[in-house]
């Protein structure tokens, strides 16, 4: 079906052309803010999208105007067929991107090059190996840092994602900005967000205003320049005066960017979420397996998209475990 690009427009006039596909709920790390301590229940393989199903469902989205696909998870690169999926998606008319914890990236460099996948976001929450081990409950710092350097040398459009947690890594905000400026790598600070089982509370979130205040204290009142972003950016961008690399803040909690949202999410078990925070899901995989046309389901889901954070309009609602706890754990959504 070749529908016009405007089809995935919601009742607030937001046009959706960006799909994040979670390839798996599995992960080779156990980040405290993402994976509940007890893990998530393992489910039978047949409940998850197979390679051909990922590609077929993605193709329906491109028919509806999606032009960018980002692979995520869980850790997308732990899937045996991750390379084949990247190759298959490269045949669709989309810009490909990936968010990864970086552990396995070195094995995929040729595949990324061959697929024209240029945009790689790597998560790294501290520049101190022992802290990374405590946050991720795994000891992969050297491997991840080595792969960040490799991606940079290979010329990828690289970003480093840092989830800020009060009392854990918020004393490294200035160090990260300095590291990014020294190495020419954009760093993005992400406010800690509430999901099922991640023991969120507002006191543990480091809001955008505080990040900026800390940076002005360290580098001086006039040291930060604001940098204009692109239309659907989730981050607000800055740079240290004199540096080439920018840094960004993703303030989903304190200053959300819902008004310009253009993204949809497909979970590894084939459910469409029209917002990261939406409790409601649309089961595309079951319909696809029954041979049904899933395009009307996608269109209906987009039409029901809430104005802001899955219907949690204000911080009070977002902070309520009865509301954000109705969502999945982040590892099972695909951040
Ligand atoms: N495993 C890959 C990774 O870690 O980059 C991809 C999946 S991970 C769920 C995607 C992004 O979500 C990562 O940058 C991670 O740091 C972020 N994330 C996970 N839980 C979060 C939370 N509670 N609040 C904010 N960001 C979170
Ligand atoms: Fe795994 Fe990424 Fe979640 Fe960490 S943030 S547990 S690496 S999916």
What is the element layout, followed by pairings?
Layout (H helix, E strand, L loop, with lengths): L17 E5 L28 H13 L4 E5 L9 H8 L5 E6 L8 H7 L3 E5 L5 H8 L4 H13 L3 E8 L8 H11 L3 E5 L16 H12 L4 E4 L7 E6 L6 E4 L12 E4 L4 E3 L8 E2 H6 L5 H9 L11 H5 L1 H4 L5 H4 L2
Parallel strand pairs: 1-2, 1-10, 2-3, 3-4, 4-5, 5-6, 6-9
Antiparallel strand pairs: 7-8, 8-9, 10-11, 11-12
Q: How would you describe this protein?
A:
There is one protein chain. This protein is of the alpha/beta class and 335 residues long. The protein has a single domain (18-332), classed as Aldolase class I (TIM Barrel). Helices cover 30% and strands 17% of the residues. The protein has twelve helices and twelve strands. It has helices at residues 51-63, 82-89, 109-115, 129-136, 141-153, 173-183, 208-219, 284-289, 295-303, 315-319, 321-324, 330-333; strands spanning 18-22, 68-72, 95-100, 119-123, 157-164, 187-191, 224-227, 235-240, 247-250, 263-266, 271-273, 282-283. β3, α3 and β4 (119-123) form a beta-alpha-beta unit. α1 (51-63) packs parallel to α2 and α2 (82-89) packs parallel to α3 (109-115). The longest helix has 13 residues, at 51-63. The radius of gyration is 19 Å and the shape is globular. Residues 1-6 have low confidence and may be disordered. The structure holds S-adenosylmethionine and iron/sulfur cluster (SF4). Iron/sulfur cluster is lined by residues 27, 29-31, 34-35, 73-75, 101, 123, 136, 331.
């Amino acid at each position: 079906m070749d529908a016009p690009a405007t089809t995935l427009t919601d009742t607030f006039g937001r046009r959706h052309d960006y799909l994040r596909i979670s390839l798996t709920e599995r992960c080779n790390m156990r980040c405290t803010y993402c994976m509940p301590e007890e893990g998530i229940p393992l489910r039978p393989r047949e409940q998850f999208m197979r390679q051909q199903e990922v590609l077929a469902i993605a193709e329906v989205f491109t028919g509806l105007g999606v032009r960018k696909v980002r692979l995520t998870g869980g850790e997308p690169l732990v899937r045996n067929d991750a390379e084949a999926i990247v190759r298959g998606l490269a045949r669709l008319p989309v810009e490909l991107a990936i968010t990864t914890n970086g552990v396995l990236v070195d094995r995929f460099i040729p595949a990324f090059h061959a697929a024209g996948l240029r945009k790689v976001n790597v998560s790294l929450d501290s520049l101190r190996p022992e802290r990374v081990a405590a946050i991720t409950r795994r000891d992969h710092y050297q491997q991840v840092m080595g792969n960040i350097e490799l991606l940079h040398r290979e010329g990828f459009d690289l970003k480093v994602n840092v989830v800020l947690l009060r009392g854990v890594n918020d004393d490294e905000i200035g160090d990260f900005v300095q590291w990014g400026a020294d190495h020419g790598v954009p760093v993005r600070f992400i406010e800690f967000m509430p999901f099922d089982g991640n023991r969120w509370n507002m006191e543990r979130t480091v809001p955008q205003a505080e990040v900026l205040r800390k940076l002005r204290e360290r580098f001086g009142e006039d040291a930060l320049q604001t940098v204009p972003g692109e239309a659907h950016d989730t981050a607000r961008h800055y740079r240290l005066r004199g540096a080439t690399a920018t840094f960004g803040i993703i303030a989903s909690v304190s200053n959300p960017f819902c008004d310009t949202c253009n993204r949809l999410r497909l979970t590894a078990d084939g459910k469409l979420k029209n917002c990261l925070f939406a409790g409601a899901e649309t089961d595309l995989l079951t319909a696809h397996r029954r041979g049904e046309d899933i395009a009307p389901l996608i269109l209906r889901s987009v039409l029901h998209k809430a104005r802001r954070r899955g219907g949690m309009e204000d911080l009070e609602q977002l902070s309520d475990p009865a509301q954000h706890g109705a969502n999945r754990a982040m590892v099972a959504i695909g951040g």
